[in-house]
Amino acid sequence: MKIQKAAVIGAGVMGAAIAAQLANAGIPVTLLDIVLPDNPDRNFLAKSGVQRALKARPAAFMDPARAALIQVGNLEDDLKKLKDADWIIEAIIEKLDAKRDLWAKVEQVAKKTAIISSNSSGIPMHLQIEGRGEDFQRRFVGAHFFNPPRYLHLLEVIPTPKTDPAIVKTFSEFAETTLGKGIVVANDVPGFVANRIGVYGIVRAMDHMQRAGLTPAQVDQLTGPALGRASSATFRTADLSGLDIIYHVSNDLGKATPDDEDFTLTPAFRALVEDKKWLGDKTGSGFYKKTKDEKGKTKILNLNLDTFEYEDQGKVKVAAVDAVKGRPLAERVKALYGAEGQEGEFLRGVMNDGFWYAAKMAGNVSNRLQDIDNALKWGFGWEQGPFETMDTLGVQTVIANLEAEGRTLPPLLAAMKASGRDAFYQGGEIVTPGGQPTPYEAPYFILTDLKKDATKIIKKRAGASVIDLGDGVLLAEWHAKMNALGEDQLRTVQDAHKLVQDMGYHGLVIGNQGDNFSAGANLPLILSQAQADEWDELDDMIKQFQQVTTSLRFSPHPTVAAPFGLTLGGGAEFTLHADHVVASAELYMGLVEVGVGLIPGGGGTKEMLLRFTDMQQPSQRLGATLLPAVQRAFELIGTAKVSTSALEARNLGFLRDTDTVAMNKNHILEDAKRQVLALAPGYVQPTPRQDIPVMGDAAIGAIKSALHGMHQGGYITDYDLVVSEQLAKVLSGGTGNNRTAKVSEQHLLDLEREAFLTLLGKKGTQQRIEHMLKTGKPLRN
């Protein structure tokens, strides 16, 4: 069973976004919706869905051109088109009768090997397929995406008792690898996993907030990043989701679950929905309201639940949160759980509710504890799931606190108390819902996961390590803050190269498992050395940086880079020089040095000129015909263009057509390892180029002329002009060269280093760096 074509029925917000994610993955998809009786365009709703996805922010498409993979139609004229689909998913109205009617029609036209799915967030899957044939029921599996599907990693896969296990396996592998999703296999129960536990948490937080006398803004401070959770925390998440959605889901869950689970909404929450009709972002008002001040600047007002008036409360300060700033997550969680006063009272109440409920749901919503943890992490942006958080606090401590509150322990916690075990995850094991230890099954090839047997640290520094990935492949892994590039990171790459040669390894992967591949150079260090006039040291440091980045191309063994997330400045330069790149689809890559008054100094300027020159026909690599390549490199670097996906990075030239894009970030290290092994047999060490054509003074003159026009027109600042002229000098191959000159890579690297140091010595650049370090934003001086 292979999924090569798909169909989505229902072109609303969710259906269109699912279709967009399929297109992102390169899967042709048919998008159908109903016919509006008074509209002459019978495909209006499907077309509107695609247009909505194209305009969505954040963007639903990784590359707008992928929208061409979506064929629109309607359910009256085009139902027959479903016969070509290997996977059919519905995202229509949440009404059981409507879904049953749809499946009766689909069964008549779908091919007998097609997998059939519902994206329902609450209607049990087994109820939808009552009355359908045995073969249809065998191929039916729930597929609950979270909005927006491109960015939220979670996909709940929900088999019914009739679903063929082979279908679950095939579909899960497709969704994980091709669509890039994190798979949680959920039981076919009300709310499944994430919504069942997540909505319970929101409902209980509302109750505890009013008991403790706190405001929504204070609660969001307490339950946000300080606790290792998303910045939208509790009530901002509610506004984003829609208060009406939470209202209906909580009411439905309250009817479908035992009384002790308590999904009862507070009177204030009910009043927001029933009386005020304030439903969150969709109506412009919820727990928060956006407005503009007299200068047109956006301001966020907070809801006073006593008066139902919106107030400007300024920057909300919470003592318990301020007390843990800058500390590691484990320390923050322990301190917040033990905090005093109304803040601590609230947190213990809501956290204990969450612990108790997650333990009660073990074996109910899913058969594995890690699926519950992953559902909350991937669906709601938590750093730790509830069982991982209990491990941080000590499970026996949590049990004692629950008993002190007079709670009856769920069977899982009762079993943990009896065993004396203080952690669910321990020694490569995790307990089952019944409390018995069992070997842990890691969802991916993740080094930082509990599955450590395939990894071995060969050499370790404070900010980086060399790790044996097995099968003769080494990994140079960075693990500093934002993976800023300094001495530890550079020396570790050098260590890894030497180990590959000395120990007979096949090759090297450059990658890591932080939040981002690398945000670039260590700016505080560079600035402090410049201000101390340590120019010889800086010159040596840039030479070393160039030697290490270019070593990825000119080593005797293959190197593969595995970038993801922010891959900026020096991080991009490392990526550009690898023999091959396995990039996460969510890649935000750019040479952004001009933002701090510099140009790329680690070979990035050289590499982009070389790439764009090589893209031209041989007859265009001479004289004035070379200018478009120079201009393209200049525009890319001079505007600090950053890709919004790996597909755009390829369009911009940061990735080659031969490089690999992986939809699932958690697969890139494993894929990179495979690429090293594929390149290793017969690998021939490349040699630096000596034949790069440049235009010299002719290109400098052309670029300067354009720059001065932009400066006079007010499009660039005085200091933009200074930086741009240095960039033009490098891309032109230096002054004094004529139109037919050819230079070496080393010549361009020397020009880069000279321009970098020249700019670093200027007051304007140092002001830009200081401003970036202080505010996180570029200075336009």
UniProtKB/TrEMBL annotation:
Keywords: NAD, Oxidoreductase, Signal. Residues 5-188 form the 3-hydroxyacyl-CoA dehydrogenase NAD binding domain. Pfam families: 3HCDH, 3HCDH_N, ECH_2. Residues 480-605 form the Enoyl-CoA hydratase/isomerase domain. CDD domains: crotonase-like. The keyword Nuclease does not apply. Transmembrane segments: none annotated. GO terms for molecular function: (3S)-3-hydroxyacyl-CoA dehydrogenase (NAD+) activity; NAD+ binding. Residues 1-25 form the signal peptide. GO terms for biological process: fatty acid metabolic process. It catalyses: a (3S)-3-hydroxyacyl-CoA + NAD(+) = a 3-oxoacyl-CoA + NADH + H(+). It is an enzyme of class 1 (oxidoreductase). PANTHER family: 3-HYDROXYACYL-COA DEHYDROGENASE FAMILY PROTEIN (PTHR48075), 3-HYDROXYACYL-COA DEHYDROGENASE-RELATED (PTHR48075:SF7). This is 3-hydroxyacyl-CoA dehydrogenase. It comes from Deinococcus soli (ex Cha et al. 2016).
